[in-house]
Q: What sequence folds into this?
């Protein structure tokens, strides 16, 4: 079996992650266009098509989130591989330290023993810090959840951003919009 180059594999993963990020950035441009299109459809009082486009917009935003999440996971895997490579190097170093300790013990050279232990403590501390950092990264997870009212909320947000009064065909959204605005007005008064 050939030697595995973890550093090279880590670089490939990082490159693939960057490609996914670039895809997500391209989709963000599509999302901006869709937001403008939804605003135009609201102005034209075309609720059905506005709702369809808003659902498409939500799906694209979900896809963007997934791409960024996957890119982040690839970055984490690449970092793990880099740390794995460092751990393999550390194992070689420990083997060397063990040999040096045995030699120093055979001659009872306390200065050599102290230097060996000091150098090993530095290596061990760096390894512990990297391991703790990886544990922290792996413990953090992101999840994107959507409820059934996401498209309606998005239509209201776009209408508010564009200062568009929702037409009568969006009446149920207007009621929800006014109900959401009431707590904000009460907070402004206080």
A:
């Amino acid at each position: 079996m050939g030697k595995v180059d973890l550093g090279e594999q880590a670089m490939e993963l990082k490159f693939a992650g960057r490609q996914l990020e670039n895809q997500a950035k391209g989709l963000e441009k599509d999302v901006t266009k869709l937001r403008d299109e939804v605003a135009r459809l609201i102005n034209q009082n075309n609720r059905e098509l506005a709702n369809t486009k808003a659902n498409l917009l939500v799906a694209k935003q979900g896809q963007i989130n997934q791409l960024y999440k996957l890119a982040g996971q690839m970055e984490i895997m690449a970092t793990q591989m880099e740390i794995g490579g460092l751990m393999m190097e550390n194992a070689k170093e420990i083997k060397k330290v063990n040999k040096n300790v045995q030699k120093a013990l055979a001659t009872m050279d306390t200065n050599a023993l102290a230097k060996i232990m000091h150098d090993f403590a530095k290596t061990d501390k760096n390894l512990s810090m990297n391991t703790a950092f990886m544990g922290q990264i792996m413990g953090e997870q992101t999840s994107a959840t959507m409820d059934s009212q996401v498209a309606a909320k998005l239509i209201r947000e776009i209408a508010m951003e564009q200062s568009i009064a929702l037409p009568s065909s969006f009446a149920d959204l207007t009621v929800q919009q006014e109900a959401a605005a009431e707590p904000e007005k009460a907070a402004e008064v206080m």
Summary: The CA atoms of residues 147 and 153 lie 10 Å apart.
